[in-house]
Amino acid sequence: MTTGTNMINVLTRFKAQSGKEKALLELLKSLVQPTRNELGCVKYELHQENEKQGHFIFIKSFVDHAAFEKHQNTGHFKRLKKEMPELIAQEPEIIILSRHA
């Protein structure tokens, strides 16, 4: 798969409500394999911040914006949007990145 200039890179940070860390982690983990199987997904990794319990970050790359938009319309992403509000302490922080070097 090529990584041209149209590739979109996204960081998404989640903060779990106190006591909901495991439930949020399990929900986020359930997205990993289905998303990696999507046409247009280049990278989809889930990380936990070392110094902050209950803080999770997705590092993801898609071949272009259309692939990213298609991802946001999948059943597993819609399930995340439905189940996430009761598990998070604040709205996720979404950072769209452009590669320069």
What does this structure look like?
The structure is a single chain. By secondary structure, the chain is an alpha+beta fold. It has a single domain, classed as Alpha-Beta Plaits, CATH 3.30.70.100. Helices cover 32% and strands 29% of the residues. It has 3 helices and 4 strands; from the N terminus they run βαββααβ. β2 (41-48) and β3 form a beta hairpin. α1 runs antiparallel to α3. It is globular, with a radius of gyration of 14 Å. 17% of the residues are buried. The model has no long low-confidence stretch (mean pLDDT 93).
Strands, helices and their partners?
Elements (H helix, E strand, L loop, with lengths): L7 E8 L5 H16 L4 E8 L6 E8 L2 H7 L3 H9 L9 E5 L4
Antiparallel strand pairs: 1-3, 1-4, 2-3
Helix pairs in contact: 1-3
